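Bug: token stream looks shifted between consecutive jobs. Job 1:
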Amino acid sequence: MGMEQMLRPLTPAYSAAVRARAAAYRRGLLRTVRLPRPVISVGNLTFGGTGKTPTVVALVRDLARRGRRPAVLTRGYGRKAKEPVLLAGPDALAPVERAGDEPLEMARRLPGVPIAVDADRVRGGRTAIGAGADVLVLDDGFQHLRVERDLDLLLVDAGDPFGGHALPPRGRLREPLSAMARASAVLVTKLGPKTAELSSIAHVVQLYAPDVPVLGARLEPVRVLTPDGPEPPAILEGRTVMAFAGVGRPEAFEELLRELGAEVAAARWFPDHHHHTARDLRRIRRLARRHGAVPVTTAKDAVKLPADHGVWVVEVEMVPVDGSWDPLWELVPGIVP
């Protein structure tokens, strides 16, 4: 008997526990907290990568362009330290073991924006407000029901939208699909060039959440960091690369490299949030040399490498298919000037 078959009887209990917890918050049996600043939650319904970090980066940048002073509240999943950390740009970074990989990536890409790393998001929110924030972006917040939010954005990956339509162990859903009804909006991420997936995914969303608007976004590369400095993504065209990453859905990274015209000669995937060791890096370099390839990874992985790693790093950003985040901000009047 396989592990999935052994664990399958636990699925109903897991589903019941998830539903009971959500109902307890909805009925006021578990206390929620209203922070004294608007809160925008960005989360997902599945285990694995849906593009939360690139979406948070894009929304924070858009809010800042519009004159707001945003901050990010994040748990810092996978970090070894327990104490709260406040990051504020590349000159105030903490070790990855203390802050976590995703908070460090956000801090590097959002200079000057407070990143409050704290498992207690209420306390983190108060810390961010004390640092001058006038709007709070709650990272991975869809299941963090303790913090009340003004906008609840649910991300769905176009390449694997509904986690096999099942809870663990058969699928990757963190909650039943009916939980989509809690969202203010669903953002379908990682859409292809023709956005063909958007209508079919929107149809499924409407079955469970008929009043929730469905928006779309693409994951677009913005630059490639090389040992000689930043380059446009076109530098990958025709280039033989060896890809490696420790992210939720690494095959999406390989697809992105191929779309940019790179020849992926080899790939090495690690578990999500993997902390790359010196031994890992030696093996990666050896494999790259064997194929005459350039080692290339994600921005999330790069923060866990030594400063002289010599690896090419692809930075991406979530871009709305309509060219503007206005349809999202219009759901919460007053969130932007």
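Job 2, same session, no restart:
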Amino acid sequence: MSVASRVVGNWGSAVLLAFSAFLLAGCSVESVDAPAAKTGGETTGAVEASAGEKRIQVDGSSTVAKVAAAVQEEFTKKFADTKVALKVTGTGTGFKEMIAGRIDIANASRPVKDSEKADCQQAGIELVELKIALDGLTVCVNRENDWLDTITVAQLKKIWAPGSTVKTWKDVDPAWPDVPLSLFGPGEESGTFDYFTEVINGKEDQITENYSASADDNVTITGIAGEKGGMGFFGCAYYFSNRDKVKVLKISPTDSVADGVEPTVESVRSGAYKPLSRPLFIYVKKSSLAKPEVLDFAKYFLNEGQAQVGTVGYVPLEEAELATVNAALESAVSGAGK
């Protein structure tokens, strides 16, 4: 296992404490930092629904889980006989669980990879891709950081690239202080990790080994807040709900800090926040749409649930795009269960 795929030091114990926020949201969270799914076999034991209970199995992205938990809470008020069992293990592990036949919905902060799609097809699983929101992947530093408000993509690459020799902020820019850099972020099963490494470092999965990784974005925020030289990245909703703990940086796609743009609803929706604006998805197993509770949940997410997208801090889809996604769901329903 690479350094980037494990939690360093004592962060592992902090995961369980920080993730209690999901429980307060009324969501059934079954595990955090769970190991990769084993292949083969159907869901058994504790994850099986009790007699007469309708149950939807969901796993995947921690970024999407923030809105999925909020949508689940409202959904179960309307559909009290249905339980939405939400696990948070990262986008990559969510797709592994889908391939293994253990879940109905995979939350994803990146599009499905061709290799994952091929594995699903080999397992006889057809995916229905539903875009549910927009996100601005956000880079934050400690609130005591008073030497920068904007960082360029080139400077981010200097810090986060594999083999980086940067140890202090001064190593990045001689005008910055000789304060040690402490880096925090998601692990290699995360879609956020995949997206960041591709757009910043130029190649997916390539990153410095000198950082503390966790599947829980709340742990990343705690790490940044605890180190004067701290820096990390996560979905914008986690920043919007933790403004008092960390400081957001403007991102410049050029070498000029004058071109820096802060992640806001407007900059993410317009695409001005470059290159870290991205879509968020849920992937529904097509055969699961034959179950009324799964179809109801997917429809709710794309309609009433859009109010929760904005409430937790992501960017809701505009009406025209939402209509297109709903049409894709309706089209898939006609072939569900086949």
